[in-house]
Design a protein that fits this description.
single chain, 66 residues, mainly beta, four-stranded antiparallel β-sheet, 4 strands, 58% strand, elongated
Length: 66
């Protein structure tokens, strides 16, 4: 997709509740969806959007602080 002007940068964080300790990146973090701290994994994605199409730029797994 060629973007000349008038685009938006979209940054989205997506979290999922997880149980167990076998998945890399799982840790105790605040989950806004349930309003409390629980085990979760978070990924952040970025996209460019021009009003018609979205072009993905990057995906990053966010590791918990511990």
């Amino acid at each position: 997709m060629r973007i000349k002007s008038g685009f938006a940068l979209i940054v989205d964080d997506t979290g999922h509740r997880k149980s167990g300790h076998f998945t890399s990146g799982v840790g105790r973090q605040y989950l806004g969806e349930i309003g409390k701290t629980d085990n979760r994994i978070v990924a952040v994605t970025t996209h460019l959007y021009n009003g018609r199409k979205s072009a993905p730029l990057d995906v990053e797994l966010c590791q918990h602080g511990s």
